[in-house]
Write a structure and sequence with these properties.
Number of helices: 8
Number of strands: 12
Radius of gyration: 39 Å
Structural class: alpha+beta
Order of helices and strands: HHEHHHEEEHEEEEEEHEEH
Shape: flat
Oligomer: single chain
Strand order of the largest sheet: 3-2-10-5-6-7
Largest sheet: 6 strands, antiparallel
Distance between the termini: 150 Å
Strand content: 15-25%
Helix content: 40-55%
Mean pLDDT: 80
Length: 309
């Protein structure tokens, strides 16, 4: 039985259309697609409106989180204690991998971060509470908490300030009660005495929140949020921190590196002083031994001369 070629009978063949027919088909398909899109123009308008609305919503209501990264070289041998065995020729010392692990632990410790908190005054945070969201200020703040005493009574407290002008403000106690205060003059609140100075008026007369937190709690929180990634086969580490305030995160990371470097120098100086004290002690011991030996030798020589005489 004979079968038709290309699935066609009566001698018909599936030949490609000429170039003119291809152009005509492409034009018809394109025009049909355009008319179809024009008939559904409202769908594109709705999609664009939704996209613009989402962008505005995110910019207005969502607080962005910034990533701050830095790189530093860790001196793995800078914190070693005095090795008496090495000084006496008995060997000793620790591996570089163990030293690097110790240094990474120190970098992420609460003790080191507490120095950063005390140096930058991070236990006091400033927020401007607007109608939509609350924004944290760092560095250039509308007001400054100059003092709060006694500290144990002031820690853990929050001041809600309603600015009036550049001289006075109301300390909001609750929804129905407030305390009139003056910038630069002390006032009493929550068994503590506070002093707040004025810098500038926030926009739209928004209220200002001053949070006076416990330094150890702030140090622990910052140390926990610090990300440390060591580079393989090197003493280089990458420090990272995520924060809604980029300037504050930069200041924390930079100050941490500075505090760590100062701590390394201090430890080196302490180790050098211990080494010098140990060497001086050994020199005094050797000097006394030589003096005793020389004294004994002279006494023996004098006794021998006397017996000979």
């Amino acid at each position: 039985m004979d079968y038709p070629k290309n699935g066609l009978s009566n001698g018909q063949h599936n030949h490609p259309p000429p170039e003119e027919e291809k152009d005509q088909l492409f034009f018809l398909d394109t025009r049909s697609l355009i008319f179809r899109l024009l008939r559904n123009w409202y769908l594109f308008a709705i999609g664009i409106a939704l996209a613009v609305g989402y962008v505005k919503f995110k910019a207005r209501y969502v607080v962005p989180v910034y990533q701050v990264r830095s790189t530093m070289i860790v001196n793995s041998g800078g914190r070693q204690e005095l090795d008496l065995g090495s000084l006496l020729g008995g060997g000793g010392g620790s591996s570089s991998s163990g030293d690097l692990t110790n240094e990474l632990t120190v970098l992420k410790s609460r003790t080191l971060m507490r120095k950063v908190v005390d140096s930058l005054g991070l236990n006091v945070s400033y927020f401007v509470e607007g109608r939509v969201k609350t924004t944290e200020f760092y560095g250039n703040t509308p007001v400054v908490l100059t003092s709060a005493a006694p500290s144990d009574k002031a820690y853990g407290k929050t001041l809600r300030i309603d600015p009036i002008d550049d001289k006075t403000f109301n300390l909001v106690l609750n929804e129905d009660k407030s305390l009139p205060c003056t910038y630069g003059e002390p006032f009493s609140y929550a068994e503590a005495t506070w002093l707040v100075d004025y810098r500038f008026m926030p926009v739209d007369g928004a209220q200002i929140l001053i949070k006076n937190q416990w330094p150890d709690a702030v140090a622990g929180s910052l140390a926990g949020s610090l990300v440390i990634d060591p580079v393989i086969r090197s003493n280089v580490v990458k420090l990272g921190m995520n924060s809604p305030n980029a300037d504050k995160a930069k200041a924390i990371v930079n100050k941490l590196i500075e505090v760590y470097s100062d701590d390394i120098i201090q430890k080196k100086n302490e180790a050098n002083l211990k080494t010098l004290a140990f060497v001086n002690e050994r020199l005094d011991f050797v000097t006394r031994e030589l003096y005793d030996v020389e004294k004994t030798s002279k006494t023996s020589s004098a006794a021998g001369i006397f017996r000979s005489a």
